Amino acid sequence: MIEFHLDGRSGVAPYMQLIQQVRQALRLGLLVEGDRLPTVKDVVAKVAINPNTVFKAYRELEYQGLVSARPGVGTFVTRTLTDQSLAAHESLREELRTWLDKARAAGLDDESIDALIATTVRTPIEEST
User: Fold this and answer.
1) I need a labelling partner for 2 at 20 to 30 A (CA). Which of 23, 46, 74, 109 fits?
2) What's the distance, CA 2 to chain centroid?
3) Nearest-5° Cα angle at 66, 60 to 69
4) What CATH number should be reported for the domain whose range is 14-77?
């Protein structure tokens, strides 16, 4: 089951952070069809968030066709976003862990690592001529 976390410094609304975390878990195969999301009560207790914020996130995920609420039972994943081999994900994750170890050994903190990754992802790859 997914465990949510919130970053108050991100500038992203809390309900959007929940949506992004579910979408990431679906894309990486960490959540699959039939999995149950944590109850609103559980999310509220773990991340100290307003229940309406969780309801809003879950409603948006339902609107996107990714989950379905079953009254009295819970909210369940109805569709996944993964389109690639999970084995490929694990190999890449291991390479990323190695890279992160090198980055930390070079003295980069988490905020610097995030900034480096974000700017690198947004920089177009120049084609060799």
Assistant:
1) 109
2) 9
3) 70
4) 1.10.10.10
